[in-house]
Amino acid sequence: MTAVFTPTSLDALWQVLAAHPNALPYAGGTDLLVKRRAGLIDPPALVHLGRIPALRGIRAEGDWLRLGAGCTHRELLAEPRIRQALPVLAQALATLGSPPIRAMGTLGGNLCTASPAGDALPPLYVLDADTEILGAGGSRRLPIRDFIRGPGQTALGAGEILSAVYVRTPPPGSWHHFEKVGLRNALACSLVSLAALIRFDAERRVAEARLAWGSVGPTVIRCPAVEGRLLGERLTPAVLAEAAQLARQAVQPIDDLRAEADYRRQVAGNLLLRLAGDTQVERFS
Predict the structure, then answer these.
(1) Between 261-273 and 237-250, two packed helices, what is the crossing angle to 10 degrees?
(2) Where are the chain's structural domains?
(3) Are 110 and 147 in contact (CB under 8 A)?
(4) Is the Cβ–Cβ distance between 251 and 264 less than 8 Å?
(5) Which of 74, 167, 217, 280 makes a 20 to 30 Å CA pair with 90?
(6) Does residue 114 contact residue 186 with C-beta atoms inside 8 Å?
(7) What is the homologous superfamily of the domain 175-282 according to CATH?
(8) Which CATH number fits domain 52-168: 3.40.50.720, 3.40.630.30, 3.30.70.260, 3.30.465.10?
């Protein structure tokens, strides 16, 4: 039988990890427990992080918001500062799983699973989020693009955990957008997703564009060529059509049981085209 430890402080956590270096930390367990039941993993011990207060909570630190890695998706969605300052993240979390999954699953778990289809990842990429990594010897910060190294692969070292995500509040007037395509309307794993954070100038032209696609590569894909094509332009259908073609060339999808690579490539561009029909964008174009 697998031993399960439930520390209630960071000091207790480090003691458990020192005594059981092969133990696997988890929070909500919505991904881990499925894999364990399927026989894909069989850790010698589990360490539950859900009762450590230092890993929870949302607080402002200067112009950054610190989101505890142990915050559940439901807690994040219920937080007014997330809905008001980071709507692209709120939009993504609202599509994640089901109400029970959102009540159990955590932000840290979504990142540490490092799935290319992770719904929270594209928004955090366009928000230029930092991750806070914690170990018994101290902490360090890494941009999210350096934290996630490949499917199921992160920068966490032995004895380290993800303790928080830092997000700088975007300038007022920034436009946020998230959309994903799945095999059904609810409880769907993303086939392709797009997060967009766009800032317009006084002439209603794009002053800054950040775009990130999920499920079309080994990690989330940002494409400087697409973002650069939008700069100085209004988001007209013609401009977006050119950018969409660049996006289809930049993504790196694969064939799997859920969709073919060619389909994902086409949808990646189509999601960009759909920005032209967004009622929020129309007033800028």
Answers:
(1) 150
(2) 52-168, 175-282
(3) no
(4) yes
(5) 217
(6) no
(7) CO dehydrogenase flavoprotein, C-terminal domain (3.30.390.50)
(8) 3.30.465.10
- The Cα 77–Cα 67 span in angstroms is 12
Structural contact between residues 83 and 69, judged by C-beta atoms closer than 8 angstroms: no
Structure tokens of 229?
């094509």
Cα angle 153, 154, 158; round to 5 = 110
Residue 5 has pLDDT above 90, yes or no: yes
The dihedrals phi and psi of 20, each to the nearest 5 degrees, come to -135, 70
Of 48-62, 227-241, 271-285, which range is least confident?
271-285
Cβ pair 272, 265 in contact under 8 A: no
Q: Judge whether 55 and 76 are in contact, CB under 8 Å.
A: no
Does residue 200 carry a pLDDT above 70?
yes
Residue 30: CA count within 13 A, CB half-sphere: 22
**Whose CA is closest to 163, among 9, 4, 45?**
9
Model confidence, pTM:
0.94
Confidence of residue 206 (pLDDT cuts 50, 70, 90): very high
Give yes or no for a contact between 282 and 236, defined as CB atoms under 8 angstroms apart.
no
Please tell me the predicted confidence (pLDDT) of residue 188.
63
For residue 214, count other CB atoms closer than 10 A to its CB: 28
pLDDT of 279? 44
Angle at Cα 228 formed by Cα 86 and Cα 200, nearest 5°? 45
Q: Give 168-191 pLDDT, tens digit per residue.
A: 999 888 999 999 997 656 566 789
